[in-house]
Amino acid sequence: MLNRLVVAVDGTPASWQALALARRLSGPEGVLAVADVKDLMAMYQATATSNYTMSTGLDVTQYVSEWDKHAEEVKEEVAKRLSDFEGQYEWHVVEADDQQGGPAAALSAFAEQWHAEGIVVGRHQGSTLLEGVFGSFPRWLVTHSALPIIVVPLNT
To answer: Which of 44, 97, 111, 143 is most buried, by the most CB atoms less than 10 A from its CB?
Structure first.
């Protein structure tokens, strides 16, 4: 059993699979740091229109408000899914900083500061073309983090 695991959760099916596995890997003495990475750049890119300016008509405060609302919904779902968890869990919002390496680097740094024994993440389910161009969150962790990384495929 692992006693200190960080698990990335963002409300996607893959992240719920990661949470379920992290729960199984952590015994009654374990502590899970359930982390939602606040990556406003990814949210902006997902909602940007295809015009040359990439403008969505939203200002930054609207993005922050939308992200915070979604994160609160994820936090509530985490509480439901871990309501009968024998160990302990903590909720964390980890702020991504593109100047410091982006969301995966932020999660890795948080996990090291939290003295985690490993990081559990869901497998990337996006476009393989985009993943090849920009990389993926799990791939960055596997190739750069000093901690053991468990990448959970969907339906495990």
So the answer is: 111
Q: What is the pLDDT of residues 26-85, one digit of tens each?
A: 988 899 999 999 987 665 555 554 444 555 555 778 878 888 999 999 999 999 999 999
Distance CA 25, CA 47 (A): 36
The CATH number for 36's domain is: 3.40.50.620
3-state secondary structure of 89: strand
User: Where in the sequence is the domain holding 144, given as residue range(s)?
Assistant: 4-152
Enter the pTM of the model. 0.84
Burial class (CB in 10 A: 0-12, 13-18, 19+), 15: buried
| Cα 90 to Cα 104: distance, rounded to the nearest angstrom | 19
